[in-house]
Amino acid sequence: MLGRFTVRPSDAGDGTYGVWDGAVNGWRVANLDKAAAEQMKTDLDLQFNAHGPRPADEIRSVDPPQPVEHLVAWESGELDAWLREGGQWLGRVRDRDGHLAWIPQSDLRPAGQETP
Q: What is the CA radius of gyration of the chain?
């Protein structure tokens, strides 16, 4: 279940962020900058689903990361991992600003490909 982990401002009130684990109702990690917290969140999404460790056949690493285009937002980014969730594959894409997002496979294509 994507959504188990969320990035939230840390309780310290110092402008840092952490990753909240909704399954255990507690912090996984705190006192990170926002980019590090987002990376940690998506790393945890790859490792765990709602019930515990994610089965190995539900994840794929892309090494080296591959350039892709998001067909809905018409943006480009780098794909570095696949995750099977809810019967579909989602790609972890980092956009040019460094933000990470899970994008459905059907909304991605290799960068530079022409549309039919």
A: 15
What local confidence, expressed as pLDDT, does residue 33 receive? 95
Residue position matching structure tokens 């840390």: 10
Question: Whole-prediction pTM value?
Answer: 0.87
Residues 108 and 77: their CA atoms lie apart, in Å, by 10
Q: What are the E-state strand segments in the chain?
A: 5-9, 17-21, 26-32, 48-49, 52-53, 59-70, 75-85, 88-95, 100-104, 108-110
One-letter amino acid identity for 65?
Answer: P
Do residues 21 and 5 make contact, with C-beta atoms less than 8 angstroms apart?
yes
User: In the numeric block, which tokens belong to residue 3?
Assistant: 């959504």
